[in-house]
Amino acid sequence: MTKPIPDKAEVALEYPDKLYIGTFERTSRFDGHLDAALYQALNPRRSDKDDIAQMTPEEEVLLLHVME
């Protein structure tokens, strides 16, 4: 499903005797989807302690490297 997302920016240059204002506008479309892995990570009912307990030793080492 795609939905339009309006992008708008305003630029202003202010001088003691003049003011210049410019507006830039564009509409973009983005297609978003949710992977099963991301859905599980965002699930508020899951327990991080259970995830850590099920890690293999190799996954623990990789996690430590990422955290360093």
Question: Could you describe the 3D structure shown?
Answer:
The chain is of the alpha+beta class. It has one domain (2-67). Helix content is 35%, strand content 38%. The chain is built from 3 helices and 2 strands; from the N terminus they run ββααα. The chain has helices at residues 36-42, 48-53, 57-67; strands at 2-14, 19-31. It has a two-stranded antiparallel ribbon with strand order 1-2. Strand 1 and strand 2 (19-31) form a beta hairpin. It is elongated, with a radius of gyration of 24 Å. The chain starts with a strand and ends with a helix.
Question: How would you summarize the topology of this molecule?
Answer:
Elements: E1 2-14, E2 19-31, H1 36-42, H2 48-53, H3 57-67
Tell me the major beta sheet.
2 strands, antiparallel
How many structurally independent domains? 1
Into which percent range does the helicity of residues fall? 25-40%
Class computed from helices, strands and strand pairing: alpha+beta
What is the 3D shape?
elongated
Rg:
24 Å
Query: DSSP strand (E) fraction?
Result: 35-45%
Residue runs with pLDDT of under 50 for 5 or more positions: none
Number of helices: 3
Order of secondary-structure elements:
EEHHH
Identify the strand order in the major beta sheet.
1-2
Number of strands: 2
State the end-to-end distance: 38 Å
Question: Kindly state the mean pLDDT as a whole number?
Answer: 79
